């Protein structure tokens, strides 16, 4: 157990076998009836127990986050691979094998707390490092760029993507008029919207999702040498996605799909692992690229700026209480440690203001740092006092600096003793409301992204754009969007125009670039594995060798669930689900080992087969299937007849060469 988990244990309360008390510790003799004048009379004001209980209930919900409201989280540990003191003096990166406790919150961006996990959206990937020098928050997304370049436009973007204000529709969706009106009229979003339309926006799980710091930061070493830096989280299981039809169905079948997946895998010991990498650009090389390195709508192509891997994070413990930890955790890009500093990225500069402001309204005041999940593992001392939710009991008369009563303590610490010092950057200019001309190329990297996609990914982007823009009611907005896409690729725009019923682009031509970055493609660099994938075996009384099938799969670290027509025991195995209580979209592959005799069960089985086939997942038939009424061909890619060949098909993942699939 790491130091942060030990600290949290101090705040845990085991209420079992305890007397009921008020919050002041007074034992309560009655909790069924309020205090009244007579058994049928009015409740009286002196009933302090009722008032305390009801007041707490009335206030037990805090305002949800404006963005990233729907999330889930876990504890873990970060282990450093090497001494990185050549690039940063951050202590948690200073020694090979050094371990630091972490807390990670994953989230969707647009939807409310009650929305579904698998909507098309950006995902948050926020990590709190409880370092010996204080808390460091790496507040990231699963896409490396953003919709706007300057934080002053962030409220506009969020207003546009949120449910429309006149009817509060639609929830957790970007497929509506105001979002696409914003995109068409704020074309700095062009690159980000390509990522948003790609399979990155519908990840298979939080365990198979990259994270990116998005903004440009600085690393500073002990000698004062600085590098611009971008942060990357790379999942050890590789990056995997859903298909759109599958994502929509999962939203209905299990809206908690991603949080359940994370929770269950940690409980089962399948601890998610991510490697932390950085891209580095020396100060003197700031202007040596064909893009502005401070522009948050641009990536640093990994082929030009390689990623250096610094360590690995393992998530190994679920939260004990969702509200106290996941809901009350407060992240802030301004929570840094010596050796990590900021750039003049205008989106980052605005985030440094807005995060504190957000926590003040959500968590009730300035003392959110004292909540157990937010407390650093190192001591903290300052002259701040009072305020809502104060927990520290400060002793003595001093709450100011400078002072003589306490020998001028607490007092500042020199940088040589660990005091934080900002990088001394020379800044010279006139106060203006303007944006650098180097930020004005909105389409070159958007086209680079498109050209870097495989044919399957391009097909998915066209389908996604057609769905999203096709939901836009105003024809003129659809036309504007098509004209914008013509700057990226004319054929893409023409196909979109055909699909959404507007005129093809006439005079606009795509930007002239043939540059590609294979690192941005999900399918160009796949990771093949069976580890922690989830498989359903369809069984009945006729199924043979259930134990052998299950054992063979589990030996490959595959999670197995048995599904049948009813809850029953089959060969000493209890069936996990019926075909009514589970769904094929919740599994990475299906093994059919049953011969249902009745037509109703056979029809449900064929639904499982059809859905799995249409979503390009592996199918194994250990019995002769009745495929009447399906479009499944036994010889198609990923459709196999043995457990061993199924494992290989599962290792590959999706099998796109299925001409009859309609997913």
Textual characterization of the structure:
- There is a cross-link at residues 332-355 (3'-histidyl-3-tyrosine (His-Tyr)).
- The protein is of the alpha/beta class and 663 residues long.
- The protein contains 16 helices and 18 strands.
- The protein has helices spanning 3-9, 48-58, 154-161, 177-185, 190-197, 244-253, 257-267, 322-327, 346-362, 444-452, 455-470, 475-486, 490-500, 546-554, 599-614, 643-652; strands at residues 71-80, 99-108, 123-131, 134-141, 211-212, 217-220, 226-235, 273-282, 307-318, 340-342, 534-538, 559-564, 569-570, 573-574, 577-578, 589-592, 619-621, 639-640.
- The strands form three sheets. Strands 1, 2, 3, 4, 5, 6, 7, 8, 9 and 10 form a ten-stranded antiparallel β-sheet that branches.
- A hairpin with a 2-residue loop joins strand 3 and strand 4.
- Helix 4 (177-185) packs parallel to helix 12 and helix 5 runs parallel beside helix 10.
- The mean pLDDT is 94.
CATH architecture of the largest domain: Beta Barrel
Helix share, percent: 25-40%
Portion of residues in beta strands equals 15-25%
| The named CATH superfamily of the largest domain | Catalase core domain
Features:
18 strands; metal ion binding; alpha/beta; 663 residues; metal-binding; heme; single chain; six-stranded parallel β-sheet; Rossmann fold; Catalase_sf; 3 domains; Catalase_clade2; ten-stranded antiparallel β-sheet; Hemocyanin, N-terminal domain; Catalase HpII,  Chain A, domain 1; 16 helices
């Amino acid at each position: 157990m790491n130091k942060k988990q030990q600290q949290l244990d101090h705040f845990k309360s085991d209420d079992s076998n305890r007397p009921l008390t008020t919050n002041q510790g007074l034992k309560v003799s009655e909790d069924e009836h309020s205090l009244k004048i007579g058994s049928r009379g009015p409740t009286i004001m002196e009933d302090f127990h009722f008032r305390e209980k009801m007041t707490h209930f009335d206030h037990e919900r805090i305002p949800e986050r404006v963005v990233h409201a729907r999330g889930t989280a876990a504890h873990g540990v970060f282990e450093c691979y090497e001494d990185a003191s050549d690039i940063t003096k951050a202590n948690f990166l200073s020694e090979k094998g050094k371990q630091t406790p972490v807390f990670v919150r994953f989230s969707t961006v647009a939807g409310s707390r009650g929305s579904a996990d698998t909507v098309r959206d950006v995902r948050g990937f926020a990590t709190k490092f409880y370092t010996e020098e204080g808390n460091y928050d790496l507040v990231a997304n699963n896409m490396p760029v953003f919709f706007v370049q300057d934080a002053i436009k962030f409220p506009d973007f969020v207003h546009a993507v949120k449910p429309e204000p006149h009817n509060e529709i639609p929830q957790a969706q970007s497929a509506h008029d105001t979002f696409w009106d914003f995109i068409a009229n704020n074309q700095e979003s062009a690159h980000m919207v390509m990522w948003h339309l790609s399979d990155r926006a519908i990840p298979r799980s939080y365990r198979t999702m990259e994270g990116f710091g998005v903004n440009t930061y600085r690393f500073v070493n002990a000698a004062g040498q600085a590098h611009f830096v971008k942060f990357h989280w790379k999942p050890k299981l590789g990056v995997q996605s859903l298909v759109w039809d599958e994502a929509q169905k999962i939203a209905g079948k299990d809206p908690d799909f991603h949080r359940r997946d994370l929770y269950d895998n940690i409980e089962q010991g399948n601890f998610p692992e991510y490697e932390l990498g950085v891209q580095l650009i020396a100060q003197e090389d700031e202007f040596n690229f064909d893009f502005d390195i401070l522009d948050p709508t641009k990536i640093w192509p990994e082929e030009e700026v390689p990623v250096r891997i610094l360590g690995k994070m393992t998530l190994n413990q679920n939260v004990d209480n969702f509200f106290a930890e996941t809901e009350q955790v407060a992240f802030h890009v301004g929570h840094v440690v010596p050796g990590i500093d900021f750039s003049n990225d205008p989106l980052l500069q605005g985030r440094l203001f807005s995060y504190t402001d957000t926590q003040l309204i959500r968590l009730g005041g300035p003392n959110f740092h004292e909540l157990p999940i937010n407390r650093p593992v190192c001591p903290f001392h300052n002259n701040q006092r009072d305020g809502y939710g104060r927990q520290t009991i400060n002793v003595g008369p001093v709450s100011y600096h400078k002072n003589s009563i306490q020998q001028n303590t607490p007092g500042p610490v020199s940088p040589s003793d660990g005091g934080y010092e900002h990088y001394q950057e020379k800044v010279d200019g006139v106060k203006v409301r303007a944006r650098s001309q180097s930020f004005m190329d909105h389409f070159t990297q958007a086209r680079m992204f498109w050209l870097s996609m495989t044919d399957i990914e391009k097909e998915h982007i066209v389908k996604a754009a057609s769905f999203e823009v096709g939901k836009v009611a105003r024809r003129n907005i659809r036309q504007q969007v098509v004209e914008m896409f013509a700057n990226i690729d004319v054929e893409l725009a023409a196909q979109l125009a055909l699909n959404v019923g507007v005129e093809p682009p006439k005079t606009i031509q795509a930007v002239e670039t043939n540059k590609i970055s294979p690192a941005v493609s999900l399918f160009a660099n796949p990771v093949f594995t069976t580890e922690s994938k989830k498989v359903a075996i369809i069984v009945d009384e006729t199924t043979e060798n259930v134990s052998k099938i299950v054992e063979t799969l589990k030996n490959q670290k595959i999670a197995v669930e048995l599904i049948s027509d009813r809850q029953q025991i089959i060969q000493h195995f209890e069936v996990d689900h019926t075909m009514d209580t589970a769904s094929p979209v919740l599994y990475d592959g299906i093994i059919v080992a049953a011969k249902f005799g009745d037509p109703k069960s056979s029809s449900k089985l064929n639904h499982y087969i059809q859905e799995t086939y249409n979503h390009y997942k592996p199918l194994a038939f250990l019995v002769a299937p009745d495929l009447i009424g399906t479009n499944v061909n036994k010889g198609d890619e990923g459709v196999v007849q043995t457990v061993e060949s199924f494992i290989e098909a599962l290792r590959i993942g999706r099998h796109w060469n299925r001409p009859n699939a309609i997913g």
